[in-house]
Amino acid sequence: MSSNNKEQLAPSTGHLSFEDFKQVVLTDYRIANESRQASLLGRKEVLTGKAKFGIFGDGKEVAQIAMAKVFRDGDFRSGYYRDQTFMFATGMSNVKEFFAQLYALPNVEAEPCSAGRSMNGHFGTRSLNDDGTWKNLTAMKNSSADISPTAGQMPRLVGLAQASKLYRNNAELSVFENFSINGNEVAFGTIGNASTSEGHFFEAINAAGVLQIPMAISVWDDGYGISVHAKYQTTKENISEILKGFQRDDHGNGFEIFRVKGWDYAALCETYEKAIKICREEHVPVFIHVQELTQPQGHSTSGSHERYKSKERLDWEAEFDCIKQMREWMLKSAIATESELDAIEQEAKKYVRACQKEVWEAFNQPIKQEIAEVSVMLEQLAASSAASAEIINLVTNLRSTVDAIRKDILVAVRKSLRLTRHENSDARRNLQIWLNQYNNENYDRYNSYLFTDTESSALNIPEIKAQYSEDAKMLDGREIVQACFDAAFASDPRVVAFGEDVGKIGDVNQGFAGLQEKYGEIRISDTGIREATIIGQGIGLAMRGLRPIAEIQYLDYLLYGLQTLSDDLASLSYRTKAGQKAPLIVRTRGHRLEGIWHSGSPIGMILHALRGMHVLVPRNMTQAAGFYNTLLKADEPALVIECLNGYRLKEALPDNIGEFTLPLGRPEILREGNDITLVTYGSCIRIAEEAILELEQMGISVELIDVQSLLPFDIHHIISDSLKKTNKVLFFDEDVPGGATSYMMQQVLEVQNGYYYLDAAPRTLTAKAHRPAYGTDGDYFSKPSADDVVECIYEMMNETNPSKY
Ligand SMILES: Cc1ncc(C[n+]2csc(CCOP(=O)(O)OP(=O)(O)O)c2C)c(N)n1
Ligand SMILES: [Mg+2]
């Protein structure tokens, strides 16, 4: 039997003839059995060593089939590793792709979710064409790409659902036909019962209740989180019970909450139909607690559940296995006979086995070919080599390794090249050429697409210089960014902004002042104090074609959203091999106020957590505006950190405030000098400028460079060019010792070969290791001051020329 599950399943079984109804039910039973067989065989594949790890959807099949019936084109899923049956039943995945992911088959044709990069059970569809442009998401079923941290899917789910609300309520968006049809799309979330203990879950539930968005969250409740029973996870051991306060009231606020047994096929179908109708039509969030699910094979391949489940529990699980119950229901209701069902089960087993074989072959065949090819080359190398015996040994080992992988090939090739390092044969040259080519292929397989690398990369946006009239207005910095945002909202209806205090008062520093009145609450809005879901809102909206600016009020509070930024947003392009994108702009402000939680500058932490995003630190609001304009034309995610003390400083308003762009990865030389290069960014620029005036009086000429774009960093090596002239460098910021200054030093000395031009030891000047103390004195003693900069640079001059300084 062919198992193309891509057919649209009947959303309702209400008006069917018995024969049609029977066919629907039997198809469901077939899919459930195929999924179960995939789980059983998947586990075997891990236990026999063909795959590294397995986590499967057995015991959750029937509920997912019911959910799949109401999942339509344009809808989105944000779920977790148990959802294989749902993915099969909706046609978003299939058994072959399941095995391809299990084996880590590194190409998108075989494994479209992640090209082998995520472990098994991590699902996703491809929203993008090969050139990075959007597909028509309304004509396909969509799954955002899974991540492993439990409940990590929840913040994004809020944004995916909110997008429907924006598309339905902002008529200007109707032209963006690839993303929505009148906001009719539902965002389906799934989560395990134990993972509802996470803060992200509760935060997302509350946010969805406030926002009143079409979010349908299903909890797959099997009573456990690995070995930990519900009594340690959930108050009253019952998540829907404790969420009762969220139940929709007479004023229409809240959730509709449903509870259903995970082995009851008929009740599941009915519940999903009812729940999703409300969700889709009324834009009311719904919560479906699917209880009494089982884990026939335990949690994962990492251990057996017999260790922690009682015999009674295991017996109950065997009896209430959803597929067994579905079978009994079909027999009892005279929908099918024993022999019909036996046949389906047998077919499912055969079908899954055939899929597995085919995929294992597809995984191994290219590697076998590579081994054959390289073995011949190694033999040729051996023929003319003094290390012949050792090389032949390597070839023999490679050929005899059972199911050898690419690592085995490279170990043999690289060792052979090392053994022959003093030889110079044609065979060796050929092998080296082959290796270079092979490295390129493997770079594509395993390392490519940290960004989607499209024409719309931020690095490809042409620079447009700011233009100023002679009588350019001098405005407060806050008015400069406000004018930039005003222009952005006016020119592109997809742009939305949200965050704490962003709506009514236009953010705590007035960057959005007056814009809610002008463009409406639907586009510029206040949110609760919930940084993780502010980021998640941004990710979900961006995945559905909108251009969100998500604001985190202060840099110090970015940590609440950092998990979502790092695990979800920053990894998105890489983990889908450019199959999905979320061009979200995160705006925040930091540096230089007073007190432990208003003056932090944890830039090193950010740089290390957010590879896959751009990180920009404009020194003033004009630079910030230039970056926003660039980013709004580009399709990559970015974090912009504005200077808190810059909002009231006067700046000239460019005539083209909405158009001018600032290139990423290009530092600016703010002051030319000959004696030393001072590398810094953000608020430290002003401190540096103060210090430079005094140093000038001492006869020391400083070249001041504003990095302004930390990721990407100085693409054109402007800083090492400066070192050619000054031969000395100081990296200065207010992060901890060894924080972002060390990153900058590594970039300049190692990547740019800057060490080559140095006459003096390179140095860093940073804040102390502790958080900055409150008050002006606290600040002075915690962070580097102009005095520190002057003295540090003087010391460096003294080291190189003690007689003069
Ligand atoms: C943040 C985080 N903590 C811990 C883990 C390890 N872990 C993976 S699955 C799991 C249990 C999840 O249980 P539940 O949510 O009930 O889902 P189930 O596997 O039972 O379907 C844990 C603790 C993780 N992936 N992420
Ligand atoms: Mg569980």
Written description of the protein model:
- With 805 residues, the protein is an alpha/beta fold.
- 43% of the residues lie in helices and 11% in strands.
- It has a seven-stranded mixed beta sheet with strand order 11-10-12-13-15-14-20, with helices on both faces.
- Helix 11 (338-383) runs antiparallel to helix 14.
- The longest helix is centred in the middle third of the chain and has 46 residues, at 338-383.
- The radius of gyration is 30 Å and the shape is globular.
- The N and C termini lie far apart (87 Å).
- The model is unreliable at 1-11 (pLDDT under 50).
- The structure holds thiamine diphosphate and magnesium ion (MG).
- Magnesium ion binds next to strand 5.
List the keywords.
805 residues, seven-stranded mixed sheet, 22 strands, 11% strand, globular, binds thiamine diphosphate
Task: List the topology elements.
Blueprint: H1 18-47, H2 61-69, E1 76-78, H3 84-90, H4 95-103, E2 142-143, H5 153-169, E3 187-192, H6 199-211, E4 215-220, E5 224-225, E6 228-229, H7 239-242, E7 256-261, H8 265-282, E8 286-291, H9 311-319, H10 322-332, H11 338-383, H12 388-400, H13 406-419, H14 426-446, E9 474-476, H15 477-491, E10 495-499, H16 515-519, E11 524-526, H17 531-543, E12 547-551, H18 558-569, H19 572-575, E13 585-590, H20 603-609, E14 614-616, H21 621-633, E15 638-643, E16 650-652, E17 668-671, E18 676-680, H22 684-697, E19 702-706, E20 709-711, H23 718-726, E21 729-732, H24 740-751, E22 763-765, H25 775-782, H26 786-800
Parallel strand pairs: 1-2, 1-3, 3-4, 4-8, 7-8, 10-11, 10-12, 12-13, 13-15, 14-15, 18-19, 18-21, 21-22
Antiparallel strand pairs: 5-6, 9-16, 14-20, 17-19
Helix pairs in contact: 1-3, 1-4, 1-10, 1-11, 2-3, 2-8, 4-11, 5-6, 5-17, 11-12, 11-13, 11-14, 12-13, 13-14, 15-21, 17-18, 20-24, 22-26
Bound molecules: thiamine diphosphate and magnesium ion.
The site of magnesium ion has 6 residues, from strand 5.
